[in-house]
Amino acid sequence: MGEKAMRTTIGALAALLMLSGYALAAEAEGHIKKVDRDKMIITLDDGKSYKLPGETDMDAIKEGMDVILAYDKVDGQNLVTDMQTSE
Fold this sequence. Notes:
The protein is 21% helix and 41% strand. It is an alpha+beta fold.
């Protein structure tokens, strides 16, 4: 294997290893069925729960709202990274 090909292979492997450590963002959409203000968790009508970030204005979050969420799954928990609401 030539030096140039070896560098390319090593570079590709390094990039793959770096990317494999990152979580891929997922999306969810639905109606808020339940709001746990103390734990900052919302549950959608499909039964799945999502942890909101600390800076979320919990007074603006209400049951029945339509939401579109972007979230990362970290340690088995769905952590919201972005949220759009119907109101």
